[in-house]
Inverse folding.
């Protein structure tokens, strides 16, 4: 489902399927996501889709049985991941809107698997990839990565000393956000630029992740609170640091804001939480972020 003109639009599902979900939206009522697909060989399996012109378009796979659409840019290019031939591995992909939406395999950082989650309007794709490095148990270490979709060049952003790092979003200046494990097995939200990740911490708990970033470099996501008692939505800015959105609510508010999933360049934040015990989506406009908050140098 997407919203247009204040009204929800049902994106539908592929014939023979039951479920679909959108994970990224763009202007001109475009969206990317994943839908059940009735494959004559594999049965009902998930396939990545592009929603454009009022229709779902199957993006297919990289030769395997399944795929997933995760992000979309303003031109309709979709970033995601797919099984390769014989379902031997999972690779990140980007679709080419100028070549019949053909999927382009972005490869890996030398390891087996990769996945893409975010894409900006200049063809830079953010995600995660296994590397040739291994941990003490022989498992491949996964690093945060950004690909140039045109050249398929991969830029390794590394991690924070643990075994896994993932980027969820990238803005048009190339600033990224996501999450990474530390050596102590905790997971922190990150922001990154020019191949380097910066730890932006948690709200006191052992887990946090950045979900979205705007042009000014403001990050939103969610984190466990102290003692892992609760999960709260946060906003991070260069000048203000990590702030629990619940601390900005008026006194006595029935809301508990649990996760923020998107932020516009104007500071509009969307996410979900609970109000009087019921789960609801929220949209909240914060003050616009100025140049002093830009994480781009």
């Amino acid at each position: 489902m997407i919203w247009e003109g204040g009204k929800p639009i049902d994106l539908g599902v592929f014939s023979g399927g039951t479920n679909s979900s959108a994970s990224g939206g763009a202007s001109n009522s475009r969206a990317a996501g994943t839908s059940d697909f009735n494959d004559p060989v594999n049965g009902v399996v998930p396939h990545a889709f592009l929603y454009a012109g009022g229709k779902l378009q199957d993006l297919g796979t990289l030769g395997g049985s399944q795929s997933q659409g995760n992000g979309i840019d303003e031109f309709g290019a979709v970033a995601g991941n797919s099984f390769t031939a014989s379902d031997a591995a999972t690779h990140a992909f980007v679709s080419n809107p100028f070549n019949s939406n053909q999927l382009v395999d972005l490869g890996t950082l030398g390891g087996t698997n990769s996945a893409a989650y975010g894409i900006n309007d200049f063809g830079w794709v953010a995600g995660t990839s296994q590397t040739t490095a291994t941990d003490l148990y022989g498992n491949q270490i996964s690093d945060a990565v950004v690909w140039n979709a045109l050249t398929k060049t991969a830029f390794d952003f590394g991690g924070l000393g643990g075994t896994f790092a993932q980027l969820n979003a990238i803005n048009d200046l190339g600033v990224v956000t996501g999450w990474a494990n530390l050596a102590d097995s905790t997971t922190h939200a990150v922001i990154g630029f020019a191949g380097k990740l910066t730890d932006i911490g948690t709200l006191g708990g052992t887990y946090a992740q950045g979900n979205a970033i705007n042009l000014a470099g403001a990050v939103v996501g969610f984190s466990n609170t102290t003692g892992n008692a609760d999960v709260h939505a946060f906003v991070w800015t260069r000048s203000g640091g990590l702030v629990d959105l619940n601390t900005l609510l008026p006194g006595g508010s029935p809301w508990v804001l649990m996760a923020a999933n998107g932020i516009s360049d104007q500071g509009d934040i969307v996410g979900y939480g609970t109000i009087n015990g019921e789960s609801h989506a929220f949209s909240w406009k914060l003050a616009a972020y100025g140049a002093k908050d830009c994480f781009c140098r």
